[in-house]
Amino acid sequence: MSEQSLSRLDRFKQSNLFYCFTRDKVAMVCTGLFLVFILGSIFAPAIAPYNPYDMSSIDIMDSELPPSWQEDGEERFLLGTDAQGRDMLSTILYGTRVSLTIGLSAVALQALLGIVIGLSAGYIGGRVDSMLMRLADIQLSFSTMMVAIIVLAVFKASFGSELYGEFAMLILIFVIGIAEWPQYARTIRASVLAEKEKEYVQAAKVMGFGNIKIMFRHILPNCMSPIFVISTVQIANAIISEAALSFLGLGMPISEPSLGALISSGFEFIFSGSWWITVIPGVVLVTLVLVINLLGDWLRDVMNPKIYKD
């Protein structure tokens, strides 16, 4: 390991963030659980007992089998099977992968748009600031779910379910990402308004640096703390939005289910006794969102020394 890497590691260990993390059991547990979700999603093809996308390995005679610990359960299906005969453990691993991919990608799109627009508005100011912030106000006046439902319903009706299924993930990422960028833009703008009057920015101007370089190389790194906090909350919101849209039939197709699609597909069986088809994916979804929200709350408190208590 290089001296530079060692010094960075040492600086991180001496930071307030690491100090607070090692003394907060909730943060450590939530981080561990989140890593389990991430690793389980990444290595789903290696961990999952079956491939839920391989129709040749699915037997309809295995449909609606209860979890293995129940009387009629089978050992080869630990969490039971769904109405199509797919192994629930495998579909949950792949479904979590889909949900996290959509959530993380949508937030990345939100952050990209919000940071560029917020930096431009705060640094340039004047009419550019007014125009961009009015655009953000207009965007915020529409509910994310309302916009998503309208756009997805129109696309599905116009191009058909088959074509929609092929591009469902990309469409969901685009719609959820576009709908939530003002959260980032307004936060970044407020930080930039405070930062651009500081001496290091004035010094950069005197040295002849261009506006783009000052914005992204000097001001942006000093505005990242609120971005990290917003991102944790927005990842949870994006996952919930995708799950809600899937539950309404406007999300991922049943052939490539997300957690929301799994909950939706099993909802009609919950009163017939096959509760595990909906309940188990629902518990996984709630746990994932709760873990992300708790991490977001902890990060917000740590980065605001006025309210953090050791």
List the helices and strands and how they pair.
Elements lengths: L2 H11 L2 H7 L2 H18 L1 H4 L40 H37 L1 H15 L3 H52 L3 H8 L4 H9 L4 H24 L11 H9 L8 H27 L8
InterPro entries: BP-dependent_transpt_permease, MetI-like, MetI-like_sf, OppC_N
Subcellular location: Cell membrane
Organism: Sinobacterium caligoides
Task: Report what the structure shows.
- By secondary structure, the protein is mainly alpha-helical.
- It has one domain (79-302): MetI-like (MetI-like fold, Orthogonal Bundle), CATH 1.10.3720.10.
- It is 71% helix and 0% strand.
- The chain is built from 12 helices and no strands.
- It has helices at 3-13, 16-22, 25-42, 44-47, 88-124, 126-140, 144-195, 199-206, 211-219, 224-247, 259-267, 276-302.
- It is globular, with a radius of gyration of 23 Å.
- The two termini are 33 Å apart.
Keywords:
12 helices; MetI-like fold; 71% helix; 310 residues; mainly alpha; disordered N terminus
How many helical elements?
Answer: 12
> Can you identify the CATH superfamily?
MetI-like
**End-to-end gap:** 33 Å
Low-confidence stretches: 1-5
| DSSP E strands, number | 0
pLDDT averaged over residues: 81
| Beta-strand content estimate | under 5%
| CATH topology type | MetI-like fold
How would you sum up the global shape?
Answer: globular
Task: Quickly name the level 1 CATH class.
Answer: Mainly Alpha
Query: Helix coverage percent of residues?
Result: over 70%
**Main sheet, how many strands, which sense, barrel?**
none
Total domain modules: 1
Q: State Rg.
A: 23 Å
Structural class: mainly alpha
CATH architecture label: Orthogonal Bundle
Tell me the series of helices and strands, N- to C-terminal.
HHHHHHHHHHHH
Domain ABC transmembrane type-1: 96-296
Family: Belongs to the binding-protein-dependent transport system permease family.
Membrane topology: Multi-pass membrane protein
Keywords: Cell membrane, Membrane, Transmembrane, Transmembrane helix, Transport
